[in-house]
Amino acid sequence: MTHIEITYLINSLHSKELIDAIRVEQTIEYPFELAPTWIQEQIVGKVVSQKEFDKTRTEVTISYNSEITGFEIGQMLNVIWGNVSLFRDVKITKINFPDSFLTKFKGPRFGIEGLRNSFKAKKRPILATALKPMGLTSSELAKMAAIMVKAGIDFIKDDHSLANQKWAVWNERVKIISDAVSEANAKFNRNSVYAPSMNRPAEQILDAALKAKGLGCGAVLVLPGISGFDTMRAIADSDDFALPIMSHPANLGSYIMNPNHGFNHEIIFSTFKRISGADMSIFPNFAGRFSFSKEECLTIANSCRDKLANLKTIMPTVGGGMTLDRINEIVDFYGNDTVLLIGGALHRGDLLENASRFREIIEQFEN
Amino acid sequence: MTHIEITYLINSLHSKELIDAIRVEQTIEYPFELAPTWIQEQIVGKVVSQKEFDKTRTEVTISYNSEITGFEIGQMLNVIWGNVSLFRDVKITKINFPDSFLTKFKGPRFGIEGLRNSFKAKKRPILATALKPMGLTSSELAKMAAIMVKAGIDFIKDDHSLANQKWAVWNERVKIISDAVSEANAKFNRNSVYAPSMNRPAEQILDAALKAKGLGCGAVLVLPGISGFDTMRAIADSDDFALPIMSHPANLGSYIMNPNHGFNHEIIFSTFKRISGADMSIFPNFAGRFSFSKEECLTIANSCRDKLANLKTIMPTVGGGMTLDRINEIVDFYGNDTVLLIGGALHRGDLLENASRFREIIEQFEN
């Protein structure tokens, strides 16, 4: 029997009651004293350590038999945060998964090494951009994509807001942009990939991923906060699909924006994404228009590249209000094993010029 | 062109900048001044009203062209909360969907009227319970289910923690319990339904719902916070499936537990669930072991039963630490169009006796 250890920071005067509630609630959800002895002993969570910082702040680590997850992502999330999400003032600051749990998951198919091979980028950061704004036609977006290929952007994704709107419906858009990227790759001797957004209806999403591949897309963008972490895992696990996955943070702010509730950033943006098969995890850079601190960003990036049983390391993907004149500072901060995602800022002035400059700056890091 | 109006409560000294950021971020995510004029005018969100309560609290309503959702649940969630979830101190307190948007969705297939017909319950509340605890075998859970049928519990669901654990694997469990419920229905002249938990892997969930139906299950339990709201919609929309759906709040606490971030309770537990096809929405009762206030609970219940374009009204389903001696008070508070979900408390003492007493108390409300 191996165990998952979850550390909770509890901000409450009633930490004792809360701790008892959590270990029962997240397992048997049943009066403890009525459960058979073996269930009390082997299934209900057990406190393994506890530290009282002051009257209202207690840190507690509870261990759970990993069998209660059934070794599936959905039940893993349910054990970790299902009903406890409805308790006030409980924050999960750390999770230790045993290797015997993690080895049940394939995780990222490509990871840092696989991405470096496919982009023929030995040392430098990977360049990424987004096709936007919503409202442009598929052909307009395709022209934009061709410029990005010419400039040498490695990874060209749909803006995360592009779903199936009438201005550029999914089927048409993915074909037209994918064709434009292939053509431009041949013409300019590049190997850029186009990643359509997989914000598709649940019953179509796996087929849509295969369709994207069939149309020549080299990767996809998945929004696990909307489609579900396990949907991302299903796409990653598909041997018929077998392309890199970039994951987007949409809707995931709910889990990490509150100091006394939810999760530490790296659990959502690195650990869960990695177990669920993302090769790249987008998160907003500090000092952009979002609210992550420098430390939170670095913790995510480090966690993406830390050892985690058999799971490949993945590329932290930094985006959100980034500009060309900050690239050196950003690479210096995150290191080379990073994807730099610059969207809107490339459009101020001449797009080809800006995108080419982006590549030029990044090329320096190859040597 | 019709619009979705979203009201945000902003707790910040920088509300002006935040409001501009939100209306651009949730649409074009691109420098406003660089977008074509028609996109600025027709796609970017527009402030329709604004109220400053004090220096740090501003309420603003922004209207969005409903076409930007593509009339799909995934992109609806993305427009409403995608990137703004990563902003601090923004809470969504109200959403007005135009009828032209809502009529694109089928919503709940059964709703209150359909549930009343299938349970042959004209006026009384519906009785529900959960099979638990995790760790019991399928046969033990099936025996428990048969007792519930005998007592006259309408709706018998898997505990939400039952997924595919070795003690009662999904395929086996669903068959054994479903058989036991059918047998008991015949024997005791009841029409109880068994609802297995659909916490299944993403690529199997739709097939699993059909399998459950094939095995004789009369409904299912879906966890939209884990499987995704659109997955619930896909199950509800399937004409081959066509059974009632009870939705569980697991993981949804992230969206509603923080006074300055997320959503008002009824948006998540009523509006989103209803658009996504739930016939019953479980939420924790006030004064139980969770943290919802009396007012929050009532707002959810009322919203489940309010007019919402063409979408059927649904049954608020109250659970969490409820006991038999509180039923009269609870029905008095919520009204008869309610599902009462009592789990653990039925097991203190004799199960058949308690469950029969539960039915007996509820029967009074039929007349």
TrEMBL record, chains A, B:
Organism of origin is freshwater metagenome
- SUPFAM superfamilies hit by this protein: RuBisCo, C-terminal domain, RuBisCO, large subunit, small (N-terminal) domain
Q: Which GO terms describe its biological process?
A: carbon fixation
According to UniProt, the name of this protein is: Unannotated protein
Stored InterPro entries: RuBisCO, RuBisCO_lsu_C, RuBisCO_lsu_C_sf, RuBisCO_lsu_N_sf
Which Gene3D superfamilies does the record cross-reference, listed alphabetically?
Answer: Ribulose bisphosphate carboxylase, large subunit, C-terminal domain, RuBisCO large subunit, N-terminal domain
Supply one GO molecular-function term.
Answer: ribulose-bisphosphate carboxylase activity
PANTHER family with a match to the protein in the record: RIBULOSE BISPHOSPHATE CARBOXYLASE, RIBULOSE BISPHOSPHATE CARBOXYLASE LARGE CHAIN
Ribulose bisphosphate carboxylase large subunit C-terminal domain location: 111-279
What Pfam families does the annotation carry? Answer: RuBisCO_large (PF00016)
